[in-house]
Design goal:
The chain is an alpha/beta fold and 275 residues long. The protein contains 7 helices and 16 strands. The chain has one domain: Carbon-nitrogen hydrolase (Nitrilase/N-carbamoyl-D-aminoacid amidohydrolase), CATH 3.60.110.10. The longest helix is centred in the C-terminal third of the chain and has 19 residues, at 181-199.
């Protein structure tokens, strides 16, 4: 199964975002990829809420989503939009992954479960929950011969989600991201490899990279990791680009047979708080 990870530096407007990502997807298809994955915030990177809000559209009206649906059909490929920032409930936005079939049909969506509400040691802060409505369900979808589990960025710090996806049959778990530079340097590869090892799954992580128009800096370094925790391919930079990797899906069964952690886990009681 030939897949491609698209690394972007998404602009701060919808029209510019589509113009930015489309040629990268076309390049991936030209290189034989049948499953093409884009990063978190594929349609828009804008951290200033007053500038973000007027650009948000319902999912079925977002020009980037509509453009990539047409592109999937034209190219005959599956496209996993890592996430699109779209209108949610009330005054909140949704950070929503969208999986598109080669027909252009939307087969599944997933709203980011875990909100990035942090105060980093560098002084950088984030409060995603103030602007975004979190999701409440895990999602898998069939992509050709493989079952995919969908996650987004900060989700990677919550291993229970990855275990649940693997137990639901996911052989590949996607982790599109717009990771900050300090956390990316410290934790990006380590956490992704850990999630692969724990679940015996392929972990595919397309990323935003570089300095964005809104002043944000993202880590890049998109990674494809095998179910034994090995790095299958990487973009060792933060520039826009395409990473193409061939996956042997039988590696999932081999890894899960060798280390049957999914089958061996046991229920347990919470620890007592002893003096």
């Amino acid at each position: 199964m030939r897949i491609a990870l698209i690394q972007t530096r998404t602009p701060a407007t919808l029209d510019a975002a589509l113009q930015h990502v489309e040629p990268l997807i076309r390049e991936a298809a030209d290189r034989g990829a049948t499953l093409i994955l884009t990063p978190e915030c594929t349609n828009l990177v804008q951290k200033t809420r007053s500038l973000l809000r007027p650009q948000l559209r319902p999912l079925n009206e977002d020009p980037v989503v509509l453009g990539l649906r047409r592109l999937a059909k034209d190219l005959g490929v599956s496209i996993g939009i890592g996430s699109a920032l779209v209108q949610g409930q009330g005054d909140k936005a949704a950070n929503r992954a969208v999986f598109i079939a080669p027909t252009g049909e939307i087969l599944a969506t997933y709203d980011k479960l875990h909100m990035f509400d942090v105060d980093l040691p560098t002084g950088e802060t984030a409060r995603e929950s103030e602007a975004y409505q979190p999701g409440d369900r895990a999602v898998t979808v069939l992509a050709g011969e493989a079952r995919l589990g969908l996650t987004i960025c900060y989700d990677m710090r919550f291993p229970a989600l990855y275990r649940a996806l693997a137990l639901a049959g996911a052989e590949i778990i996607t982790v599109p991201a717009a990771f900050t530079r300090p956390t990316g340097e410290a934790h990006w590869e380590i956490l992704l490899r850990a999630r692969a090892i724990e679940t015996g799954s392929f972990i595919l992580a397309p990323a935003q990279g570089g300095g964005h128009e809104d002043g944000r800096g993202t880590w890049g370094h998109s990674l494809a990791i095998g179910p034994w925790g090995e790095v299958l391919g990487r973009l060792d930079h933060d520039e826009p680009g395409v990473l193409v990797v061939d996956l042997d899906l039988t590696a999932v069964a081999r890894a899960r047979t060798a280390i049957p952690a999914l089958a061996n886990a046991r229920a347990f009681s919470a620890p007592e708080r002893l003096a």
